[in-house]
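User: Hi! Is it possible to get a structure for several chains at once, not just one? Here's what I have:
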Amino acid sequence: MKRGILLSVNGERREVFIEPNRTLLDVLREELSLTGVKEACGRGECGACTVLVDGNPVNSCITLAVEAEGKEIETIEGLSNGGDLHPLQEAFIEHHSFQCGFCTPGIIMTAKAFLDRNPEPTEEEIKNAVAGNICRCTGYDNIVDGILNAAEEIKK
Amino acid sequence: MKDFKYVKKGLKRTDGEMIVTGRAKFTVDMALPEMLFGKILGSPYPHARIIGINVDKAKELEGVKAVVTGKDIGYRRFSFIDTPAYPAEQTPLAVDRVRFVGEGVAAVAAVTEDIAAKALDLIEVEYEELPAVFDPEESMKDGAPAVHDIIEPNTTTAWEDFGIPKAKSRPFKVVNNISNRTLIEYGDIEKGFEEADCIREDRFEIPSTSHVAMEPHVAVANYQPTGKLDVWLTHMGYEHKRFWLAKLLDIPMSMVRVHKTYVGGTFGGKISIFPYEILSAYLSRLTARPVKITLTRQEVFSTCPPARRMIVYMKMGVNKEGKITAYHSKVIDDVGAYRRSSPTAMYLAHSFRNPIYDIANVRHEGYGVYTNKLYATAKRGHSLQQMSFAVESQIDMICEELGLDKVDMRLKNFRKKGDVLPNGDTLNSYALPECLKQAVEKIGWKEKYGKEKSRGFGIGTASMFSGAHNYPFASGAMIRLNHDGRMILYTGQTEFGIGIDTVMAQVVAEVLDCPMDYVIVNCGDSEVSPHDVGNWLSAGMFVSGEAVRRAALDLREQMLNYAATGLEIDVEDLEMNDGWIVSRSDDSKKLSFSDMSRYGIQMAGGDPLIGKGYTKCVPEVYFWKGKYNKTASLSSGKGRFTQAYGLAAAAAEVEVTPETGEVKIIELVVADDCGTPINVKSVEGQIMSQAVMGIGDVLLEEVEIKDGIVMNPNLLEYRVPTANDIPKITSIIVDSYEPNGPFGAKEVGETSRAAAISAIANAICNAIGKRICALPMTNDRIMQAISDKKGGNS
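Assistant: Yes, the chains can be modeled jointly so their relative placement is included. Here is the combined structure:
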């Protein structure tokens, strides 16, 4: 049975009328057209679908949309403020931290949640933080560089 | 050499903002009004006859708009390689027989994906199981179940359509399940083996690995009432896609438009055409609505071809001085149900290794063998990594037997710059010796080799074409000057992670000496962009990049000529500088690019100024109405292959814990001779990417197939390297300057992986003092080798 739920996405109230078994990923992509959220495995194994729910990174492909009701959802689309990019986004461009870019939104959201908690991370801590996000293109080095540099930029 | 302004710099990606904001649109993100969703029903049997299919109940389900079976579509065959000698044998859906678990038997289009999935459950298929064969060496024996009997073409083959002068297509009778053969010979191997002081014969086994491109395989097709087919695909070159879609749907190729999308990784796995792409188009035409088919990760693992699995019998002879006197490789390529690119792979298994060692006496035999398994395809290096693992392992074994230094021995056997290969290719640039020297120096080989127990050192080499003379053979490019002085570049290159917009803009900005933001790149749209060779066989920068450079030169010449007339000065006195055309002798005399557009339109009969450039993969090769020159033969290896070879050497240091078999990579160094790096950061990215992929190949990755079923079709059971698995990796760019490439550039995207694989594998075997002749080198396999009392090879 479909039901109406109210989601708060990137600071905006969004009403959707959905089956309760729909994943947050599906609802964000298909009902709200937030296609920056990506699906690569559908089973919580790769991190491409990572969004923040109340500041915590979650795999939206294994989270039901109804579970996120009443919570603050952040996606890559909400990260930049108008035309101003977030320091993580700037650093990812500066340090070639992506190639095909498919896993990038998920990695940036994971990194954002991480830096919010740990503003002065070591390289090892960064590697651990993004170890649940698979990137098949970059070999990860430039991703770690990007996050390290973003952390320094945020501190300034 | 003059200093570059835009080339050989690590410039930022010009489309970076699109990626980091999530605004870049991939094919999975495409949604069209009235779009339907397709699903494909796969066979549960590895080999069976289809007795009947009942789709009535599925058709009755509310929301189902179409159900098709193989009988509806018929014998419309396709393959990556479709030649008169090796005609295509795969159909979009199985018509009367299935040959692997997961092969499509029916497809549905419905208003939602859920309804499409429910409809699949309502399709009743009656099968008669047939005996199946899974082991390629069993499959070659007399009396093994026949995967195919006789392949009877019912159309011309693709090679005839391309105009390649070969015999007319003919039925292909499959004997002993052999799908294709290659035999390349030169010198006298019997004599070569007589001259050897050490001869080794070993058997190597390399499993399938998955590409794991993060964007799953997906297609959106929209057949228009005008007869035009619009498609959005995740791919690596549109010419193959539109050729096959046109051929299989009986529509003119010009009526197929492959739209530009961002592509979420390919690594060879999205080359040529796939059933789900043809089915989305077929269902769209049938329903007169757009149809999207998105494969799940499990479907990608289970129904899309992984990398080729090979058994390599290597026999090499080396004399006491360390010179290789004879080389005999026999490769069995377990192609699975359909041969696809095996005829190419079997010739590449020779030709990708050919530029490395100078060996006078060579025999290379390649056999594609059908089995009732998922068919296979190219993956980043297409045979190079399998052969590099086998050859470099065996060279280490021989060096150990003869007491030779592993670095010196390789240096002694390397070819030289200027060498002409037996097929006629010339090594106009060749820095492989420098690559090896720099890699071993960086790793500290001399100081550290053999000094510490449980520590091991290994080296490996690789080489790769920079495009080859296969269809589509050539690339074009166009640059249109706009009224504001900026330009739009049209290139058929596809953006799948390489930064095409950026590197092509660098090429144009360098030629025209203008700011990067003067160049807007429109890439990968088959209706707008010119003919293009695609992003495979590493042709992108070398071939299409050169076409772009020539288009820029053409536009430059036109602009300079008009400027000379407009300024009433000699053209020789003019140069371009930072977006201006300036007199060398009087810098007050200058015109902007915008002025040139206005001049062309107002004073030169409305000339809008369009630059055109083109280049061929191998200029000497041609065929035209029965005449032909230097065309390569896949089965004999004769004829020209490529214009330039990328080369790489790697060195690895590892530590193995003898109690557990656990491998820790201490350091990996990859030195890549890619000619001039157009974008230094992008090139380093390609090398790092391959180094890490190589780590996965050696330590983790194998598509496990049991009784024809893929046993690990997900990212938990099929593990790829994560950020935590990355050791210290150094990439070294060795610029050999390739005279035929744009600004001296050549291939970079596919060489390093094989060099890294062979270096890491050799380092592990060096650390444990035992030889492992199979990949991946899992902890279990290493423990088994360590406990092997025979002390030799396992």
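Chain B has a mean pLDDT of 96. The longest strand of chain B covers residues 324-336.

User: Great, thank you!
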